[in-house]
Design goal:
Layout (H helix, E strand, L loop, with lengths): L8 E2 L4 E2 L6 E5 L7 E6 L5 E6 L14 E3 L4 E7 L7 E7 L3 E2 L3 E3 L5 H13 L8 H4 L12 E3 L6 E2 L13 E2 H17 L1 H5 L13 H15 L11 E3 L17 E2 L4 H18 L4 H20 L23 H15 L2 H14 L10 H9 L8 H22 L17 H18 L3 H14 L24 H5 L21 H6 L17 H4 L3 H14 L5
Parallel strand pairs: 2-10, 11-15
Antiparallel strand pairs: 1-3, 3-7, 4-5, 4-8, 6-7, 8-9, 8-10, 11-12, 13-14, 14-15
This protein binds ligand G3I, ligand 9MR and zinc ion (ZN).
Length: 556
């Protein structure tokens, strides 16, 4: 649409399920409109005419658009929930503009959920991506070299495998554990959300596709443990970032960087969790992971004052610096207790849960995984007052998010301070918390707000941008993702979540292309050089897998 409203009618570019609340958000650009139409894209006929909603429906100012502070835009909401007939549609404000064409249908989110999981398959290191699964995105096996221990360079270690972290080819333990945790948590809470996951990913022996893919990372993580001490190495990377090249062409020395308390805590937690979840598929594997988890726990117990990881002066790859391992340790204690029932772990949880009852689900603060796991633990195993407190931490957080969403023109609980590096991770983490809170205490607003966050990711945002490669009418085309840049294929590798707007403009391209006073929701450039807004990362995909898999389930 070439008119003045081009790009102004924002929609989830995939569409909606029949029973979803359905709406477009329309940027008014100073114009005034009363109504909109929903048009059947096949016949070109308007099937519904609705009144645009502005500043709250009941406050007598329904015709004035709302100022959204994060985008600087005046916005209307165009609600067409009552239309539930499957088909192709677009939203139009006659004389102003139209939205992209989208679908109303029961399966609108199935493909994106599957593709987000497959995005991790494309990140696999140490194996060839073959055409039968990878299509045009093939490459030879990469990073097969034995790595050198940074601290004692006479020693070498086989740490092949795992997923490349992001747009670079480093492999980092905590981010890997975070991504796996989202997948396992999703599977443990909503197995039905993963059972229909169709997958052309090479299958191992382990059940559902999500567990099969997570195992690829778990197998690598097991190699990252120092078998002597039980400590877990922080990462394996070159000393610096490589150019925009395919992974199999990189033959720089790989270094295994020192053990860190955060990597060790995350490892203990995710291994204990995985041990419980994989037990019914492979008892031996479950035992191996549990033994590794307890060994890592012992390292934590023996090294209570170990400092956080810092890059040595000659290494510049991702630092993932984190001075506090208390949240990782808390999460580990919860998972170890839930899996083993041993009182030593429970004692730790009981002594520490008050300081840790937060909802952090990012690589730096993992406390939320502990909170959630304890909240859903078998009531016979749990201390009821601790469980009550941790359940409240979840629902309190969800209540806060719902309230916060009311002040945002896009209906999402996101304010200007949430637009940091990897903001889409925060967007999907909040949706995750809301979905989980709904399991504890069913609440329509929790699910609506979670859905609004997903709608934002899929294009209902001020830039009209779908942040998932290969999905939506205006998908990310130029992610800072080395294979996508170097492979000679026009379209980027599909199913990858871009970091998204970052008001900090933390790379030269973002600085050059975005004004210093850019509104946070617009602080994004679809440029391959913009690593601080347009990189992809496994731990940005993982919460999106959780959310999309939940929304892909058949509606009640
Ligand atoms: O958390 C603070 C927040 O409290 C504050 O308000 C805000 C204001 O700037 O900053 C927030 O911190 C930011 C942090 O990300 C948030 O997670 C930092 O400024 C920002 O520099 C930091 O960026 C990290 C980035 O590496 C640079 O270190 C990203 O989290 C992290 O995802 C990213 O990870 C990189 C790896 O290093 C290398 N591999 C690719 C990967 C993805 O880009
Ligand atoms: O490509 C790197 C990306 O994966 C990291 O997230 C980012 C921040 O650590 O750094 C990127 O590498 C850039 C480097 O920091 C500066 N020179 C240009 C590199 C590639 O664009
Ligand atoms: Zn590799």
């Amino acid at each position: 649409y070439q008119g003045k409203g081009a790009g102004a009618i924002h929609i989830n570019q995939l569409g909606f399920r029949p029973k979803d609340e359905k709406a477009a958000i329309i940027t008014s650009q100073g114009f005034h409109f009363d109504s909109f139409q929903l048009v059947d894209a096949d016949s070109g006929e308007a099937v519904y005419t609705g009144k645009l909603q502005g500043k709250g429906v009941g406050d007598g100012k329904a015709d004035e658009p709302v100022l959204d502070f994060t985008s600087g835009d005046l916005v209307y909401k165009a609600d067409f929930t009552s239309v539930d007939k499957p088909g192709s549609y677009y939203v139009e404000v006659p004389g102003y503009g139209k939205s992209y064409t989208f679908t109303i249908g029961t399966d609108v989110y199935r493909n994106v959920a599957d593709a987000l999981l497959k995005g991790l398959y494309y990140q696999r290191c140490g194996t060839a991506l073959e055409a039968d699964a990878a299509g045009e995105y093939t490459h030879d096996a990469c990073h097969l070299e034995i790595a050198t221990l940074y601290e004692d360079q006479s020693k070498q270690l086989d740490v092949t495998g795992g997923w490349h972290d992001a747009g670079d080819y480093g492999r980092y333990s905590s981010p890997g554990a975070n991504a796996v945790a989202f997948m396992l948590m999703g599977y443990e809470l909503f197995p039905q959300g993963y059972k229909d996951m169709k997958s052309d990913i090479p299958q191992g022996a382990i059940g559902p596709a999500v567990l099969n893919e997570a195992k690829y990372e778990l197998d690598w993580l097991l190699k990252m443990q120092d078998t002597q001490s039980g400590g877990v190495y922080h990462k394996v990377t070159n000393k610096g970032f490589e150019g925009f090249v395919m992974p199999e062409t990189v033959h720089e020395n790989l270094y295994v960087l020192p053990v860190s308390p955060t990597a060790t805590g995350d490892f203990a937690a995710v291994m204990a969790m995985a041990s419980r979840i994989y037990e019914s598929y492979d008892d031996e594997y479950a035992k191996e992971m549990l033994a590794a988890a307890e060994k890592a726990w012992n390292w934590l117990a023996n090294n209570p004052n170990a400092p956080g990881f810092h890059n040595p002066s000659d290494v510049v790859t991702g630092e993932y610096g984190d001075e506090s391992a208390s949240d990782e340790t808390f999460w580990a204690a919860v998972e170890l207790y839930r899996t083993t029932g041993k009182s030593v772990y429970h004692d730790y949880v009981k002594a520490n849960y008050k300081q840790q009852s937060r909802m952090g689900l990012g690589w730096a603060d993992m406390s939320g995984f502990g909170t959630i796991s304890y909240a859903f633990m078998d009531e016979k195993l749990a201390d009821s007052s601790v469980q009550r407190a941790l359940r409240s931490a979840i629902t309190d957080n969800a209540n806060t998010l719902v309230t916060q969403a009311e002040t945002n023109g896009f209906g999402i609980p996101v304010d200007s301070s949430d637009y940091y590096w990897g903001s889409n991770m925060g967007v999907m983490q909040k949706a995750t918390v809301l979905i989980i809170a709904n399991e504890l205490q069913p609440n329509y607003d929790y699910l609506l707000t979670a859905h609004n966050l997903f709608d934002y990711l899929m294009g209902r945002n001020a830039l009209d941008q779908s942040y998932v490669t290969g999905f939506g009418s205006k998908p990310v085309m130029n992610p800072h993702h080395r294979p996508s840049i170097a492979d000679g294929v026009t379209d980027p590798v599909p199913g990858l979540v871009a970091g998204g707007p970052n008001a900090g403009r933390q790379d030269p391209t973002a600085e050059a292309k975005l004004p210093a006073d850019v509104f946070p929701m617009k602080a994004y450039v679809d440029d391959k050089e913009s690593y601080s807004t347009n990189e992809i990362a496994i731990y940005w995909n993982a919460p999106a897998i959780f959310v999309a898999s939940y929304l892909a389930m058949p509606q009640q």
